[in-house]
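User: Please go through the entry that follows and flag anything odd:
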Amino acid sequence: MNFVFKILKIELNNVIKSRWFFFFFGFFFLVSYALLSFEDNIQKSLLSLLNLVIYLAPLITLIFGTMYFYNSQPYIEMMLSQPIPRASLFVGLYLGTSIPLMLSFILGLFLPFLLFSDILAYLNLFLILLLILILLTLSFVSIAFWISTEIGDKVKGLSLSILIWLVFGIAFDGLILFITFLFSDYPLEKILIGLTVLNPINLSRTIFVLNFEISALMGITGAVFKKFFGSSLGTFVSLGSMLFWIVIPFLFGLIGFKRKDF
């Protein structure tokens, strides 16, 4: 554990000094500032921020996490020449990448929110948004590190990261629409719930939207979703699914890192 904290300290220092940390912070700050400035309805602004978070945060996290791991290989080789456990090094790299990304995203969203909105009236929604942001960042850093440990070629690893984002962010919605259209005469609510929990981006969107009154406009499917995800079982399944996308890719990445020949 002592090795983890030492490596984490070094990684935090390196990443926070990176221009990318300030770029991500500045981008989210400016977009949040603009949305909150030009929209009087805070709920609409939060929905717009949700779309920003669930699409851009995973993309940024996948690309940054993959490239950072590949670019850190000389440093990794140097550290592995020391009496440092591989597991400690991997955990330190993972946390040293995840924490600065989360800080840049959260600060970029939180500071404009403090300036322009009644924080007490919408605090619960904003906290849900921040929780979604944290879980998505952790899960997609896990996926990025898993890809980087399994694929030695940087171009192939980066291409796979972008492909995974396209599948989760765009193609998955098309698949659900296709299934809904093809089997519209059949009861699909339970099947759609099952598909939703398989995709962290879709699951994040569903959980957030169902906290708004507009969820009533989603029809019978929306009522089923609200009944399920609003229950204790639904909450447990939702958190379990998000944790699955954090823990499982992380463990596979750790296993690959331990056996990888640098």
